[in-house]
Design goal:
The complex is a heterodimer.
Chain A: H1 2-8, H2 10-39, E1 43-45, E2 48-50, H3 56-63, H4 65-99, H5 105-117, H6 120-131, H7 136-144, H8 158-168, H9 170-182, H10 186-194, H11 199-227, H12 231-236, H13 244-254, H14 258-296
Antiparallel strand pairs in A: 1-2
Helix pairs in contact in A: 3-4, 3-14, 4-8, 4-9, 4-11, 6-8, 9-11, 10-11, 11-14, 13-14
Chain B: H1 2-25, H2 42-49, H3 51-84, H4 90-98, H5 105-119, H6 126-149, H7 154-162, H8 167-196, H9 199-204, H10 211-218, H11 225-256
Helix pairs in contact in B: 1-11, 2-11, 3-6, 3-8, 3-10, 6-8, 7-8, 8-11
The chains are: A mainly alpha, B mainly alpha.
Chain lengths: 297, 266
């Protein structure tokens, strides 16, 4: 009887229903991630796997400069991508939210997301075509006489990676910012204007602080996946633009050193998570300080 | 006004690569560069001659279909549970299911490779890719279906129950038709994601490559590039068609659920 009542309860029906996707995520996501952690403490000795737990892989990553260099570069590139993507995305999200008539908004968002869904590989490859020495950009700039010789700083270096990834992750930044801007009560803005604030003052005292959650979400959503990007650094990054994912791939598929690759993947995830938490905390403190300063004046 | 100019410039930036594709696909020159040489259909004919590509496309279509169906099936369970019921640890459970949305794909690829090859010693096949693609499609499917399931009037289903239908029949006869547009939209989006996914397939494909993995190989051969442009053009047109249909159904679903459209798939 008690069981029968439990079986029909809200909680039980919800849990039963959610259990297939939940168990799917446990077996194919949580368990494999746990396996990667376990694996990172083992070592590879040519063809045999040594299962004695050791910190050897982590020691290698700490001591050999190659890993540190790539890790720092990946964090640097991912942070630059985050900054550029969010900075470029904010005005467009603002435009769609404040200047596009309501019935046109979803059309604009749809147009923004379309390029994101179309063949990722070929899209990245086309940036190589656009930015190359004889590329679209150089030949048109030469044609108009704006430059005397082709620009070389735009391909096969970290700049190219930043630009290409800023293109690839645009919707990831625009949508969260758009959602937070849409939530802003428009009468607040009118009130501020009525009380004599200028357009710019209203923007900085109301719009920007209220959009902050969306901006932070956009930063995190762009930062975390970009650190693991493989295709873009490989195609447009050149030798000095390679990132951590390229090294992970080499360790797993070429050098057959899965344990070291696993350790590197974990170090990369921990670094990016730490960096994320750091800048969120900094942003929160800054917001708190500005609020306080405003309250005092 | 400046903002409008910026918006237009930004859209040009977003569409630049997609618009260049057909330009080079029809350009009668083996080099992908300006100036253009003239019009040709030749590169499309080339595509017809690459047998290995056809196998890769067939593989990818099969993987994308299976991934879409399984991901949407699981997505229906999760979205329905999340919108209709309160249960313990709801946030944690839903959080775990949604994680692949932000997790770098290489992490998913590496972790499954470790488990399947190093620990379970299973052979890699199309099914290993499908298993991984379901994982990354599921969050998108849930995001779309949440829109379709939320605001659904519970009293409709209760009425069916009162009239003597079983719980499953009430769901099938009342709720399912109402959320059908959302389901179709979710199927199409999952299909598009799986068809385009590269890095996981790169790590997990066995002897038969998927289409993106095959394209990746082609990119190393300069003489193949115009054919890749032609293939890209076909893919872009195909995905735009699929997305327009998906968007149509998503909006219809929102309308049926009585929701105001907030726009966007993500």
């Amino acid at each position: 009887m008690a069981f029968g009542r439990y079986k029909n309860s809200e909680a039980a029906r919800g849990l039963t229903l959610v259990s297939p996707p939940f168990f799917y995520a446990i077996t194919l996501l949580a368990a494999p991630l746990a396996a990667v952690i376990m694996f990172s403490f083992w070592t590879q000795d040519f063809l045999t796997l040594d299962r004695t737990p050791t910190l050897e892989n982590y020691r290698t990553i700490m001591t050999e400069p190659l890993y540190g260099t790539l890790l720092l570069r990946s964090l640097y590139i991912a942070s630059a991508v985050m900054a550029v993507t969010v900075a470029l995305a904010f005005p467009i999200a603002y435009f769609v939210s404040f200047h596009v008539p309501a019935h046109r908004k979803s059309l604009w968002l749809f147009l923004i997301t379309i390029p994101f869904w179309t063949s990722y590989l070929i899209r990245v490859f086309l940036w190589k075509v656009i930015l190359g020495y004889n590329g679209v950009l150089n030949s048109s700039l030469l044609g108009t006489g704006l430059i005397g010789e082709p620009l070389t700083f735009i391909l096969y270096n970290p700049n190219a990676v930043v630009l290409t990834l800023a293109h690839a992750f645009a919707p990831f930044a625009i949508l969260p910012i758009f959602v937070s801007l849409e939530k802003i009560d428009r009468s607040l803005l009118e009130a501020a204007r009525d009380l004599g604030e200028s357009r710019a003052q209203t923007f900085f005292s109301i719009t920007l602080p209220l959009a902050m959650p969306g901006i932070l979400a956009a930063m995190v959503i762009v930062l975390i996946p970009t650190i693991g990007d493989y295709v873009t650094p490989r195609l447009v990054g050149g030798p000095n633009g390679l990132m951590i994912a390229n090294l992970i791939q080499t360790l797993f598929l070429k050098l057959n050193n899965a344990p070291l690759g696993a350790a590197l993947a974990i170090v990369a995830m921990i670094s990016v998570a730490t960096w994320c938490i750091t800048f969120i905390v900094i942003a929160k403190i800054l917001m708190w300080l500005t609020n306080k300063a405003r309250g005092l004046t | 006004m400046t903002l409008r100019i910026y918006a237009i410039a930004y859209m040009i930036f977003l569409y630049a690569p997609v618009l260049l594709l057909p330009v080079f696909a029809f350009n009668d020159s083996p080099v992908i560069a300006f100036p253009l040489k003239g019009f040709t259909w030749g590169w499309f004919n080339d595509l017809a001659g690459i047998g290995a590509l056809h196998d890769a496309v067939k593989n990818s279509l099969w993987i994308a279909c299976m991934s879409a169906i399984i991901a949407t099936g699981l997505g229906i369970c999760a979205a329905r549970a999340a919108t209709r019921f309160e249960f313990p640890a709801k946030r944690g459970i839903m959080g775990l299911i949604m994680i692949p949305l932000v997790l770098p794909e290489i992490i998913v690829a590496v972790s499954l490779l470790v488990v399947l090859v190093q620990i379970l010693n299973l052979p890699l096949s199309n099914w290993t890719i499908i298993a991984a693609h379901v994982l990354i499609c599921m969050p998108f499917s849930i995001a779309i279906l949440n829109g379709a399931f939320s605001n659904l009037d519970n009293s409709l289903e209760e009425a069916a129950l009162d009239l003597g239908e079983s719980r499953f029949a009430a769901f099938r006869l009342v709720t399912l038709p109402l959320v059908m547009p959302g389901i179709i939209s979710s199927l199409l989006i999952s299909f598009t994601i799986s068809l385009d996914e590269f890095i996981i397939a790169f790590f997990l494909s066995g002897s038969e490559p998927t289409m993106p993995v095959y394209i990746w190989g082609l990119l190393r051969f300069p003489q193949r590039l115009p054919a890749v442009m032609a293939l890209g053009t076909i893919l872009v047109i195909l995905s735009i068609v699929l997305l327009v249909i998906a968007e149509y159904f998503r909006r219809r679903g929102l309308k049926r659920a009585g929701l105001k459209d907030t726009g966007g798939f993500l």
